[in-house]
Amino acid sequence: MSGAGPGLPGRALVGFCAGLLHLPDADAAELAVAVDHFSAQLPAATRRALAAGLVAVDAAAVSLGGRRLGALAPDRRDQVLARLDRSPLGDLVEAVKVPVLLVHGARLAGPELAARNAGPAVRPDAALHVVEAAQWPDRRRTDVVVVGSGAGGALVARTVARAGLGTFVVEEGRRWPVEELRQRPALERFAGLYRDAGGTVALGRPPVVLPVGRGVGGTTLVNSGTCYRTPTRVLRRWQADHGLHLADPASFGAHLDAVEELVQVGPVPDAVMGANGRVALRGAAALGWSAHPLRRNAPGCGGCCQCAIGCPRNAKFGVHLNALPDACAAGAVIVSDARVERVLHGAGRASGIRARRPDGSVFEILADHVVVAAGATETPPLLRRSGLGRHPEVGRNLALHPALSAAGWFDEAVDPTTGVLQSAGVDELHRSQRILIEATSTPPGMGSMVLPGTGRLLAAQLERSRHLATLGAMVGDAPAGAVHGRQRPVLTYRLTAGDARRLLQAVVAMGQVLLAAGARQVLTGIPGRPTVSSVAELEQAAASADIRRMHLAAFHPTGTARMGGDPQTHPVDPRGRLRGVAGVTVADASVLPSCPEVNPQLTIMALARAVAEELVGALGG
User: In 3D, which of 507, 511, 509, 508 has the Cα closest to residue 522?
Assistant: First the structure.
């Protein structure tokens, strides 16, 4: 088997694939090659953990069945793997199961995705002035250099360029033309659009999977497009508790209005809602709970459910289609495929950045002002590499907006992957418990991780997966994590007891919605009680659940360079300026003082716009 660095153990992987999906040996061998190829793009530590897990599972199979999984007869292999899944090694089986199901599902969905992508794009690619780092000179000078082209960096670049300031944007990822998104297989898009092929993890009990987008447009390339305005209560808290005057609801509302107009926010039309969203609305209505179609920046959405792997229609209106083109029209230039190694500075003032090309060579951009917008997980290491991360709070106060999912089996076909990926919201428990439920699916073939079991049981569930409706719930969390390291970020996260309780409450709430909508059974994600048929069973399962064994994900890291008035607790001042050095502004999710309790796209963009206006005023643009 091939791949960068050590591959996964071949015989063990083939046996696991065969047992997990009840596949013939030849099909399992073919799948194992694809899984190994995908794993080569994951972080080295993740590959080693997967390899160790495979070896452990295979060795345990010997103790139970007398032979390795690959050497057992199919029915005996089913029995052994099912026993392992129910044993203390069950968590290990579930962990190794994730990449296998991801690869298997994406491969099977290839023809369906190709058919969905056959129609024309809603709009052409925008006119962007992008220069690959390989073609960029060794030294250039400008007024402002922006590190990162995502939600924060794009709004800053647009604002300062339109004010007449020379602007360069440096992006670690590359540009993704819509034709490439239409033609490349789903798994290749997933691996290329996310940092470390989506393998970023916050270490803890439980670990939290944290996919982070990378490319021209940042995470707006791969988010769901969901656009919530920042809750007024959150803005008031930031203003009162953190001294953040930019969060004054009276003035911040104007920034939100401007961003909503820029990205063309509107509610999900019923024509593309999909049955998955209608199930959520139906269940909430039966319970008398508040629910609504979500508001998104996706004019012309066709409901192909591929938001998370790059919209193949250019319907999702990410910043690569609005803010960045506006910046380039005003003279900004984007340098792609370049990792910023450090912010240059001396005598207490920034003087530019040094970045590295893919071939290892370096270049410098000299500038009067540097804007760091690398994201909540990458900004702290960059500041440390630059000798600017000495403030004790840099990298601390990481909030993730942790999420769990639940699903329901229905008599009618639901087909959750037809329609909008994130379509309807249930906010009944949002104000009181900070629990936000959203009808959330995944791209076709990439969502089977919710299914419990192995072997024939799992294969049978896959066959009828079009009858499954899926929900996700996020909890507005305490800042319980940190970003360590200088070169590669190492994330840790210790879920608080209160947030753990709310996550389990969210599982119950999602199950209630599904059952009220007519689900025959609910898949809880709770080890030992994966399937329930009533609210009473659901509550019992949640009451006995160990949150440390459940699969958590998160998509909204914030807070690692908090912005506020207290110099002791906020590395960034209320105008967005990094303390301790002149000429550096931070304008990304890292400056949010706490979890915004909603999908943060609009919040990040609005705050970046406010910060950029402060910067323009200071620079006299």
Answer: 511
How high does pLDDT run on average in the chain? 95
Classified by CATH at the fold level, domain 270-300+398-553 comes out as Cholesterol Oxidase; domain 2 (3.30.410)
User: Which region, left, alpha or beta, applies to residue 380 given φ > 0 means left and ψ of -120 to 50 means alpha?
Assistant: alpha
**What residues contact residue 266 under an 8 Å CB cut-off, 6+ apart?**
295, 296, 299
- State the pLDDT confidence band at 9, using cuts at 50, 70 and 90: confident
Contact of 365 with 170, CB cutoff 8 Å: yes
Q: Find the farthest-apart pair of alpha carbons in the chain and give their distance in angstroms, rounded.
A: 77
Question: CATH number for the 130-198+214-263+303-393+560-619 domain, one of 1.10.8.420, 3.40.1190.10, 3.50.50.60, 1.10.10.10?
Answer: 3.50.50.60
Quote the pLDDT of residue 346: 96
Q: Which residues contact 427 (CB under 8 A, 6 or more apart)?
A: 290, 291, 292, 436, 437
Alpha carbon 67 to its chain centroid, in Å, reads 40
Please identify which of the residues 37, 255, 401, 556 carries the catalytic annotation.
556
Model confidence pLDDT, tens digit, residues 264-296? 999 999 999 999 999 999 999 999 999 999 999
User: Tokens at residue 487, please?
Assistant: 């070169």
Confidence bin at 3 (pLDDT 50/70/90): very low
556 is catalytic: yes
- Evaluate whether 304 touches 170 at the Cβ level (below 8 Å): no
Q: Give the amino acid at 449.
A: M
For residue 23, give Cα distances in angstroms to 14, 28, 107, 393, 569: 10, 6, 15, 51, 56
* pLDDT: which is higher, 45 or 571: 571
* Alpha carbon 150 to its chain's center: 13
CB proximity list for 194: less than 8 A, separation 6 or greater = 200, 211, 212, 213, 214, 222
**What would the pLDDT profile of 52-68 be if each residue is shown by its tens digit?**
999 999 999 999 989 99
Q: Which residues contact 437 (CB under 8 A, 6 or more apart)?
A: 280, 425, 426, 427, 428, 429, 471, 472, 473, 506, 509, 510, 513
Q: How confident is the model at residue 6 (pLDDT cuts 50, 70, 90)?
A: low
**pTM of the full structure:** 0.96
